[in-house]
Design brief:
6 helices; alpha/beta; about 20% helix; ten-stranded mixed β-sheet; elongated; about 550 residues; 44 strands; 17-stranded mixed β-sheet
Length: about 550
């Protein structure tokens, strides 16, 4: 068996390598396949060339046919290195890819420069990266030019200069318990004290892309201090610094600080008289029976409150007990201590009291024979404490009532309500009917305005006058109805999430209400959560 007659020879320009073949009829030759041809090219020193698949396939077919023939076919060729440049969409980076040569010329610096010029790249070159690629003869998306990323301006920043400043909302831990330490003292600042610094917006920095084009940055939003701030002004030395103008409590606002005037007294009794103050009040001692303390801001009482009235536009924090008078274990209605806050209320112990909060009520130890009402949450007791019990009375909260124990072994009648007990959907439907009626009336008035607008008669003018008065009345009514509708929407959301949580025990005599559903406790049961699902109260142990 003789070797097939195949000879290799370059064409005149030394680029294409031809395979000259001769097939003799009847002569047996070993099988011709691609590995054989590749090996033959390598043996004869042509392994670096680029193989031409069509030529290899043609030779294999010719020898498989076994018919006498001869000829030539291009089987391989020299190929120079290929250089490609890729530009990112943001025009800030250029990447180089070099496909190594196959028997041809390697990539050169001039080739890279030419490609960069064709792409328009003229800025941010990385010469060392290019040099490394040329020396190695290959590159795979190598970063060789880098523009300057745009640096947009920063918005104005507001930095509080007061350490540990308080907010209107007391902190509650993730497990729902009160961190009483966070309530702290009411902070007081004095005239001239620095409260907040404003760092003006910046314009940003000009930059360039790899094409050498200038990139204009987006300037920051130059927000000013909030308008209408109380008890503060900009410093005479620095218009970007807020300073206090009165002695009082600093309260953070959006883009600013208010300073609420603070009154501090030893105690509230017959000697001091009742307090009515536009600002915050600190009582170092007790509030005596029969006294009143009213403030537009926060009220902090370090002692106890007995048969007094306490009202605040902010939070009320009572470190001691809140105790009302009772005769033969029955609260004296006229002498019940009354606590009312738009914000949160906190106290150590409550007995024979009425407490109302526009946010949360947080009691550390016990609530006995009292009426508590909070928009959001009522929490009695703190984590890992043996105390925290609600005994008797009525407790109503918009979202959550939580205590260690509810009721007592003596079977004290205790009413617990979480979520709105009313049928919100029915109320909304009724309001919707009223809104439709008012809207229809306003539409009819529009027809009257249109009919009488260009009518100069006295009668038409009188009709128009009455219609205008009616329109104003209907618009006031519509605004009121819309407000009521919004309140009901909030109540519906709160009712959906309403629950009563008891950590240790619920005693008989307790009546649990979640939204409009009721669960009367006939026998003592262990700690559990009461919530509503599928139109009924369910218990989660």
């Amino acid at each position: 068996m003789s070797n097939p007659d195949i000879q290799f020879k370059f064409d005149d320009d030394q680029i294409k390598l031809h395979a000259f073949y001769r097939v003799i009829k009847g002569e047996n030759s070993p099988p011709i396949n691609k590995p054989f041809l590749i090996r033959k090219l390598k043996d004869e020193g042509y392994e670096k060339l680029h193989c031409v698949e069509e030529g290899i396939t043609r030779i294999i077919e010719v020898f498989e046919n076994s018919k006498a023939s001869e000829g030539k076919v291009c089987i391989a060729e020299k190929r120079d290195a290929e250089v490609n440049i890729c530009i990112t969409k943001d025009k800030l980076s250029a990447y180089l890819t070099i496909h190594p040569p196959e028997g041809g010329k390697p990539a050169t610096l001039d080739m890279v420069k030419q490609k960069l010029a064709e792409k328009g790249v003229r800025y941010g070159f990385l010469p060392q990266a290019i040099k490394t690629a040329i020396i190695s003869g290959k590159a795979d998306e190598l970063l060789i030019a880098k523009g300057e990323p745009v640096v947009n301006g920063e918005d104005a920043k507001f930095t509080c200069l007061i350490d540990n400043i308080k907010t209107r909302t007391p902190k509650i831990s993730e497990d729902g318990h009160i961190d009483y330490r966070d309530l702290g003292e009411i902070q007081v600042v004095h005239p001239g004290e620095k409260l907040m610094r404003r760092d003006p917006a910046t314009m940003g920095q000009l930059s360039k892309n790899v094409f050498g084009e200038t990139i204009t940055p987006k300037p920051g939003k130059n927000t000013k201090f909030a308008a209408g701030l109380d008890g503060v002004k900009t410093s005479n030395e620095d218009i970007n610094t807020l300073v206090a103008t009165v002695t009082g409590q600093p309260i953070i606002r959006e883009n600013g600080v208010n300073v609420e005037k603070t009154m501090q007294v030893e105690s509230v009794d017959l000697k001091s008289g009742n307090l009515l103050f536009d600002g915050s009040v600190i009582v170092l001692g007790d509030v005596a029976s029969g006294m009143k303390v009213k403030a537009s801001g926060d009220i902090k009482i370090n002692g106890m409150v007995e048969n007094a009235i306490i009202e605040a536009g902010g939070n009320i924090d009572i470190k001691g007990a809140v105790v009302g008078r009772a005769e033969n274990n029955v609260p004296v209605v006229d002498d019940l201590v009354k606590i009312d806050a738009l914000g949160s209320v906190s106290a150590k112990f409550v007995e024979n009291a009425r407490i109302s909060s526009g946010d949360k009520i947080m009691i550390q130890d016990w609530v006995i024979k009292s009426t508590l009402n909070a928009l959001n949450e009522i929490i009695v007791g703190k984590k890992d404490a043996s105390k925290g019990q609600i005994i008797g009375g009525s407790i109503t909260s918009g979202v959550l009532v939580k205590a260690m124990n509810i009721g007592s072994s003596a079977g004290a009648q205790t009413y617990i309500q979480a979520g709105n007990a009313n049928d919100v959907e029915k109320e909304k439907d009724q309001i919707g009917i009223k809104i439709s009626r008012v809207t229809k009336s306003l539409f009819e008035l529009q027809k009257i305005f249109k009919d009488t607008k260009n009518n100069p008669t006295k009668q038409a003018k009188n009709i128009l006058k009455k219609a205008l008065l009616s329109k104003q009345e209907f618009e006031r009514e519509l605004t009121k109805l819309r407000s009521q509708e919004a309140i009901l929407d909030k109540e519906k959301l709160r009712a959906k999430n309403a629950k009563v949580v008891v950590d240790i025990k619920v005693y008989s005599g307790t009546s649990i209400h979640v939204s409009q559903y009721t669960k009367d406790i006939q026998d003592d049961v262990g700690g559990r959560t009461y919530t509503v699902k599928d139109g009924k109260i369910i218990q989660i142990s």
